[in-house]
TrEMBL record:
<dbReference type="InterPro" id="IPR051269">
    <property type="entry name" value="Fe-S_cluster_ET"/>
</dbReference>
<keyword id="KW-0479">Metal-binding</keyword>
<dbReference type="InterPro" id="IPR017896">
    <property type="entry name" value="4Fe4S_Fe-S-bd"/>
</dbReference>
<protein>
    <recommendedName>
        <fullName>Ferredoxin</fullName>
    </recommendedName>
</protein>
<keyword id="KW-0408">Iron</keyword>
<dbReference type="GO" id="GO:0051538">
    <property type="term" value="F:3 iron, 4 sulfur cluster binding"/>
</dbReference>
<dbReference type="GO" id="GO:0009055">
    <property type="term" value="F:electron transfer activity"/>
</dbReference>
<dbReference type="Pfam" id="PF13370">
    <property type="entry name" value="Fer4_13"/>
</dbReference>
<keyword id="KW-0813">Transport</keyword>
<dbReference type="GO" id="GO:0005506">
    <property type="term" value="F:iron ion binding"/>
</dbReference>
<keyword id="KW-0249">Electron transport</keyword>
<comment type="function">
    <text>Ferredoxins are iron-sulfur proteins that transfer electrons in a wide variety of metabolic reactions.</text>
</comment>
<dbReference type="InterPro" id="IPR001080">
    <property type="entry name" value="3Fe4S_ferredoxin"/>
</dbReference>
<keyword id="KW-0411">Iron-sulfur</keyword>
<feature type="domain" description="4Fe-4S ferredoxin-type">
    <location>
        <begin position="1"/>
        <end position="29"/>
    </location>
</feature>
<keyword id="KW-0003">3Fe-4S</keyword>
Length: 65
């Protein structure tokens, strides 16, 4: 599994960083998403998919390797 993200689309809501702070963070300068772990283990797939689905601007997607 791999996390893809579109920083230009991100509006900095912080939902991803708040929900999964070990995988996502926010840039201190512009508040946009930072992905700390682009390939989390498969045991985190459901949680990452839920966060991606909750992104208000759909800036996150989950892909198979």
């Amino acid at each position: 599994m791999r996390i893809r993200y579109d920083r230009e689309r991100c509006v900095g809501s912080g939902a991803c960083a708040f929900t999964l702070p070990d995988i996502f963070d926010q840039d201190e300068d512009d508040g946009r998403v930072l992905v700390l772990v682009e390939r989390p283990g498969s045991e985190r797939r459901k949680a990452v998919e839920d966060v991606a689905a909750s992104c208000p601007v759909f800036a996150l997607t989950v892909e198979d390797d």
